[in-house]
Every structure is written in C-alpha cells, then in structure tokens.
Amino acid sequence: MSIPTEPQTTVRRSHFVDLTPFRRSPAFFRLWLGTGIAGVGSQMTVVAVGLHIFQLTGSTGAVALVGVIGLLPMIIAGLYGGVLADTFDRRIVAIVAETVAWISVLGLAGLAWFHIEVLWLYYALTTLTAVSTTIVGATRAAIVPRLVEKPLLPAASALGGISMGVAITLGPAIAGVLVATVGIQWTYTIDAVLFLAAFTGILTLPPIKPEGGSAVRGIPALVEGIGFLRRAPNIRLGFLIDLFAMTFGMARVLYPAVGALVIGGGAVTVGILFAAGAVGTLLSSLFSGRLGHVRWQGRAIRNAVIAYGASMLLFGLVLLPLGTQPSGSITDSLSTANLPALLIASIALAGAGAADNISAVFRNTMLQSAVPDAMRGRTQGIYIVVVTGGPRLGDAYIGLVAATMLFWLPSLLGGVIIIAAVAILVRINASFRDYDALDPKP
C-alpha cells in the first residue's frame, strides 16, 4: 500500500496531542475511530460480566476466575495469532478474529435475556472473547506502522491512548448506570451493536501482507519469533516491567466488592472506579504532544511505572481504614457511598491510568520502531499476551489476597512490589536505561 514518506521536520511546542497521523493517513484514522467506538461497548461488557458474576455468586474469587480461566487460551492465541499476522494478510486475520469476538458477545446477550444462569457458559464466552480480541490486538498493532511513518509512531500511540481512554471512561460509566437501571441484558446488547464499528475500520483497509517474511510457518515461525525476542534485550525487559505492573497493580476484580462492602455506592461506584483510570489515560493522551521528542525512552518507562506503583499504593491506603460493610449490596445507590474516600480512590486510579498510558506510549514506540516488519506480528502477539495476561495473573493475585477480606492489602502490597522491582530491573540493565530513540535497537 502507499505510505506517506514526507518527514516530520518541525519540533512541536504544544503539549496537546499531535493529530498529524490523522492528516497523513486517513486509513489510520478510520481504524482508530472504529476501534474506539467498539471499545466503548467492550468495556461495558467487561464491567457487566464482573457485576453479573458477582450478583450470581457474591464472590470476588468467582469474578477473578473470569481472567484466570481465560489466561492459558489467551496466551496460546497471542502467540499463534502473532504467527498468523506474520504469515497471512493482516486485514483478513483481523476480520476473522473480530467476527468470532462479536459472536461471543451476542452469546452473552442471549444468556442474559433468557436468564440462563449457568456459570461455566459465561466463563466460556468471555474466554472466547479474550482469545479473539488478543489476536485482533496483535494484528492491529502490526498494521499501524504500515499506515504511519516512523517519526509519527509516538503520536499514533498517544492517539491510541485517547481511543482507549474514551472507551474505558465511557464504557464502565455507562455500564454502571445501565446495570443499575435497565439491567445487564441491555448492557450486553448495546455492546453487540457498537461492536459493528470495528468492522468498518478494518474492512476499509487495503490488503496488508507482511514484508520480508521468512518461509517458515506454524510452530517453526513461533520458535523463530521467540528466538528473536531472546536477542532483543530492550523489548524483553519492557515486557517484564509491564508484567510486574499489571500482575501486582491491577485491582479491577476488587471493584464490585469495594462498591458493595467498602466504599459503598454499589454498581455506580464500580463504574466510577473503572472510569477513573480511564480518565487518567485520556488526559495523559490529550496532553501528549511533547512525548514524541523524548529521547531516553527506557528511563521514561521506568519513571512512569514507578508512578503507577505509587498510585496503586495510594489506592490501597484509601481502603485501609474503611473496613467492610456486611450489609452492603451491589444494588445500593451512590447516596450510601463514602464520598471523600471515593474521590481520593478515583484520583489514585486516575494517576495510575495516566502513568500506565505514558509507559505504553514508549513501549509501543520501541516495538514499532525497533522490530522489523517480518517479526512485528509475533512480537506484538507476545506483547499482547503480556499486556492482557498480566492483568489475569493479577486477577488471581487479587482473588487470593482478597480472600482475607483485607481489601486494602492487594493494592498496597502490589504498589510496593512494583516500585522496588522496576527500580532494580532498570538499574541493572544499562542497555534499557540508555535506550536512545534516535538509534532504536531491540
């Protein structure tokens, strides 16, 4: 396909997000828009599934199992999905995977409308969604560098942060209100409708076949990709840092219990907590205009992830003195909430969202600028496994620690672990610490 080649010659002075990728690549804009609209619905379903299972079981552990059960299939999908993206037309791979994800959402809606309360069916369909969206994510990330020029990759990543920020701001907030008013059935159904926007962004792309790929396919291609990662210390450490952050700092499965038993406010509080992190993501993306000129990106990742750990530590400290309310319910109104605690918790989660997004901008830029196109699908597949698998490991960690009913402990302990681990890892890896955006090396 034709890619604009005009270099970016001016230095931006504005802190506001750089919209140049939209002007240079209409195809990137269409993909971005379709992904963002569909993402709103997907985030609604994330919240709805958690609330639905908590409503059926009253167990945070049962909510955590959504992520735990889907972990191994998602890992396999990420690894092999990356192979597919490096073997076949990436547009076709994305279309097929999106179709499977859409069917699974329709299945969740059908279960809810017919009041089928068989728990394993919800686990199965959410696992199918995780598998297909993992493949889509790896493939879409491998497509972006073919649509925009290399100097604009940080700006494109920041725009992706806006899309994600809007999705995870509006989606959970809308879901919280819908579940509390018209019910879970409509929440799933609206996601199925919004999902159609994803097809618009992908169907309008031209064929995008991998460039310079090898002749190997299947398992040998996967082995080749893993071998490349062993020779890419900067990319590898970026994965490890993100895995620590997402495993020990992702408190999402706590939110139903926090809304019902700690802060109060029920489903509306849950929606606010989900949306708070997204607000941070969105604001950090909106004011990302200067990120494209950060040269020492390894250090920037270190600083951002340490800030993320500190934010999660604050979230745990907010919950520490509150105790639990055994009589609380997920259907309580916001009038029952501890509003000062909700405000501080939301600020902490917004800080975590902003820090994680800034880290993601630089991690994505490293991947897209330092990895050759022929390997991009496989490395993106591994990256998607880390990004989505880390939170599922975090779900297991949270579920185990929260079984103590000390709902403050997982985030407080996790924040300390993240800060210490990242500081040590970057200190002992000089290559990552001195990673130079002007001379990108994997």
Automatic annotation (TrEMBL):
Signal sequence, start to end: none
CDD domains, alphabetized: MFS_MefA_like
Protein topology in the membrane: Multi-pass membrane protein
Subcellular location: Cell inner membrane
The Major facilitator superfamily (MFS) profile domain, residue ranges: 190-442
Keywords: Cell membrane, Membrane, Transmembrane, Transmembrane helix, Transport
Membrane-traversing stretches: 31-54, 60-80, 92-114, 120-143, 155-180, 186-205, 237-255, 261-283, 304-322, 342-362, 382-400, 406-426
Primary localisation category: membrane
InterPro entries cross-referenced by the UniProt entry: MFS_dom, MFS_trans_sf, TM_effector
One Pfam family here: MFS_3
GO molecular function list: transmembrane transporter activity
Entry's Gene Ontology cellular component terms: plasma membrane
Protein name from the UniProt record: MFS family permease
